[in-house]
Write a structure and sequence with these properties.
Elements (H helix, E strand, L loop, with lengths): L11 H8 L12 H14 L5 H6 L4 H14 L16 H17 L29 H8 L17 E10 H5 L6 H13 L3 E5 L7 E3 L11 H14 L7 E6 L7 E4 L2 E3 L2 E3 L2 E5 L9 H10 L36 H8 L6
Parallel strand pairs: 1-2, 1-3, 1-4, 4-8
Antiparallel strand pairs: 5-8, 6-7
Length: about 350
């Protein structure tokens, strides 16, 4: 039997490492297989690896030290010829890493704010600021304020005078496929809708994709929790910090998903503010995906209270996008959603 974790399964070099002594990973190796090992080491033991080795996917001295630490903690020793662990990823080490990553994979569902509830599955009890749920007003008012006060004199929309800062990246796999040709249309939709409320969209570093992320998990579709968090960490390795800028990463996802916002994600000692993944395989004909996910990311959950989607199909915050021309367009940004954006962590 070969490797079973989603992270390692199907990688030819790692599959060979499991059965062939000549295929062991050692100092100086480079490539996607090394990147997968680096992610597993950090994910399982929060082991520090030099940023230059992470970005270049190189099995350098700090990666070797992390392997040695992992093996020492678990006493992975081939006692037929060893008395102490080494810093090589061989058969026993890859089998151990694979088993532990498989365990993590089964423990965490890759569910985000836009996840659809399957037919026949009961909805969790979630209060919505849009449906007048009892008891919600006090919680929601701190972020949104009085909805009726969002119009200025003469019925005009209140001008919020804030700038929303986002950062755009794309995975190498998405870039090599078809890229994301609707990016400019998504940006224009967002800018036009925000302008009516006195909000400005600032695309940081470059007016387009500032980074291309060579993430080891992007050979296929981003589905599982470790892939989601791993991609976010790969972006952090490439461009660290940006605590007050929303990260938006375009990557391959499930075909029925346009985008997802993820919050409360951590790996090791890193805790990430809400971030957005947009599906490179799907284009919403309304071009509302970016702004829709920005609303999710800006909303502050209090005691697990989530922001329900808007039931009105013309709303930017309506649940369903469409890939078909002629369908109802999500084009209207409501004042209460504009206020959420104005109070988001990426607004200045």
């Amino acid at each position: 039997m070969g490797l079973v974790s989603k992270l390692f399964q199907g990688n030819q070099k790692l599959e060979a490492c499991l059965v062939d002594n000549a295929a062991h990973l050692t100092l100086g190796a480079q490539g996607e297989d090394v990147a997968k090992i680096q992610f597993a080491l950090f994910s399982l033991d929060t082991l520090d690896i030099d940023r230059t080795e992470l970005v270049s996917q190189t099995y350098g001295p700090s990666t070797a030290a992390a392997v040695l630490s992992y093996k020492t903690k678990r006493q992975i020793i081939n006692r037929s010829y060893q008395t102490a662990p080494d810093s090589i990823v061989g058969k026993m080490t890859i089998a151990s890493l694979d088993a532990e990553m498989r365990g993590r994979q089964l423990s965490f569902p890759g569910v985000g704010d836009c996840a659809l509830t399957l037919p026949g599955v009961p909805q969790p009890f979630v209060l919505s600021p849009l449906n007048g749920s009892p008891g919600f007003a006090a919680t929601f008012a701190g972020q949104v304020g009085d909805r009726n006060s969002e119009l200025s004199g003469g019925g005009k929309l209140k001008q919020l005078n804030r700038t929303l800062r986002i950062f755009l990246a794309i995975t190498k796999r998405a870039s090599l496929d078809d890229g994301f040709p609707s990016l400019s249309a998504d940006l224009e939709r967002a800018k036009d809708s925000l302008f009516e409320h006195g909000l400005t969209l600032s695309v940081e570093f470059r007016n387009g994709f500032a980074d291309t992320i060579d993430f080891a998990g992007t050979a296929g579709r981003i589905i599982l929790e470790d892939e989601i968090v791993g991609l976010r960490k790969a972006s952090e390795d490439l461009r660290p910090g940006l605590a007050n800028i929303l990260r938006v990463i375009v990557c391959p996802m499930n075909d029925f998903v346009f985008g997802e916002t993820y919050r409360n994600r951590r790996i090791g000692n890193l805790f990430f503010p809400p971030f957005v993944l947009i599906n490179s395989r799907q284009t919403d004909q309304s071009h509302a995906t970016l702004l829709h996910e920005m609303i999710h990311a800006a909303f502050v959950e209090i005691n697990g209270v989530k922001l329900n989607h808007d039931p009105e199909p013309n709303s930017i915050f309506f649940e369903n996008g469409t890939s078909q021309l002629g369908a109802v367009n999500r084009t209207f940004l409501k004042p209460e959603h504009a206020v959420i954006l104005a109070k988001g962590y990426f607004a200045i």
